[in-house]
C-alpha cells in the first residue's frame, strides 16, 4: 500500500469514500446528504494537506491534516480519516494514522487534537488510544447518531515528538 | 444597556472592539494582525447570529452565537464574546453571557460549548463557571500566549434548559 498527497485526479475516488462514510450518519457530524462539491471543498481547503492510500492502483482511503486553530493555536494539528467500506479491517486506519503523525511532526506541529470522536465509534477510539492519544474531554450528547440518538463525543489529544 | 442583533452599520464599532481585543494576543487564537475584512467576515458568517451591546448610543461589546458543528452536531451552540477595553469591569461580559444563553435556548440549542478558553484568562474562566459552565477538557499548551508562551486552553460546556 502506498500513501501519497492527493491531487485533482483523485477527486472521484475521494468523493466515493467520503459519501460512503458519512451516509450512515454514525461517525461524522457532516450532513449525510452533503453534496460532492461541499465535501471536496472541505477536504481540499487551502490550509489542508490531503492524502490518499492506494492499493493495487485503487484508492482505498483518504485523510486530511491541518492546523486545528488559526495563528496562536496553529501549532496543534487536526486530522480526519476515511477508509473505504470495501477496505475495512485491513489495518488501513492504523497505517494512515501512523503516516499522519509522521507528517505532522515533519511539518512542525507540536501536538495533534481530534475535536469530535464519536464515543460509540469504538474501533476509532481504540485505534487512537493505541496510537498514543488520550481522551482529554467528553462532550455530553454532542453527536446526534442516526440510530442511537444523542451520544457523547470525545476530544482526543497527543503530543508529538515521539511517533507511535 | 441594550443588547440587540448587529447590523451593517455596526461594523466600524465591532472592528474597533475586535481589533483591540485580539491585538494583545492573550485571549483569542486569531492573528493579532488579522485584517478588518477577515474579522468582519468571521463575525458575520452566514450561520452566525451577531449581537452588540449599546450603552448611551455607543457600542461597548459584541458577541456571536452559532452551531459549534455542522448537521449532526448542530444542536450544540458555540459563542464568542468581546468587550471594549474602555468598558471592562462593568459586568458587561456577564450581561452578554446571560443574554446569549437565553438566545441559544430560544433558538433551540440543547447545550453550549466553548472550544478554546485560554486558561490564563482567569476572569473569563471564572465568569463561565459562574454561568454554569464546566471545564470538560484541558488542551495542553494549546495557546501560544504573546507574553507567557504555550499555555493550556479549556473546553467548557453547559447544557441549556435552565438559564443561569
Question: Could you give the order of the helices and strands of chain A?
Answer: EHHEEEHEHEE
Overall mean confidence score, pLDDT of chain A: 97
Biggest interface reads: A-B, 36 and 36 residues
Shape of chain A: globular
Outline the low-pLDDT stretches of chain A. Answer: none
Write out the strand line-up for the largest beta sheet of chain A, numbering strands in chain order: 1-2-3-4-5-7-6
Tally the beta strands of chain A: 7
How does this structure look, described?
Two copies of one chain form a homodimer. With 164 residues, chain A is α+β, with helices and mostly antiparallel strands. Chain A has four helices and seven strands, in the order βααβββαβαββ. The first copy, chain A, has helices at residues 11-22, 36-43, 92-106, 122-130, and strands at residues 2-5, 49-55, 58-67, 76-83, 111-118, 134-145, 149-159. A seven-stranded mixed beta sheet of chain A has the order 1-2-3-4-5-7-6. In chain A, a hairpin with a 2-residue loop joins β2 (49-55) and β3. The two termini of chain A are 19 Å apart. The interface between A and B is large, with 36 and 36 residues.
Describe what is shown at a glance.
The structure is a homodimer of 164-residue chains. Helix content of chain A is 27%, strand content 37%. The first copy, chain A, contains four helices and seven strands; from the N terminus they run βααβββαβαββ.
Amino acid at each position: 500500500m502506498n500513501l501519497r498527497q492527493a491531487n485533482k485526479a483523485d477527486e472521484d475516488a475521494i468523493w466515493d469514500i467520503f459519501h460512503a462514510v458519512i451516509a450512515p450518519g454514525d461517525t461524522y457530524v457532516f450532513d449525510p446528504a452533503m453534496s460532492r462539491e461541499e465535501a471536496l471543498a472541505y477536504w481540499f481547503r487551502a490550509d489542508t494537506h490531503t492524502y490518499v492510500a492506494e492499493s493495487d492502483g485503487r484508492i482505498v482511503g483518504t485523510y486530511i491534516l491541518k492546523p486545528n486553530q488559526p495563528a496562536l493555536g496553529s501549532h496543534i494539528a487536526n486530522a480526519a480519516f476515511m477508509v473505504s467500506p470495501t477496505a475495512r479491517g485491513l489495518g488501513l486506519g492504523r497505517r494512515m494514522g501512523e503516516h499522519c503523525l509522521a507528517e505532522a511532526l515533519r511539518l512542525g506541529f507540536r501536538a495533534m487534537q481530534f475535536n469530535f470522536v464519536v464515543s460509540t465509534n469504538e474501533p476509532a477510539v481504540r485505534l487512537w488510544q493505541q496510537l498514543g492519544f488520550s481522551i482529554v474531554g467528553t462532550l455530553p450528547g454532542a453527536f446526534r447518531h442516526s440510530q442511537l440518538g444523542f451520544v457523547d463525543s470525545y476530544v482526543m489529544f497527543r503530543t508529538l515528538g515521539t511517533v507511535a
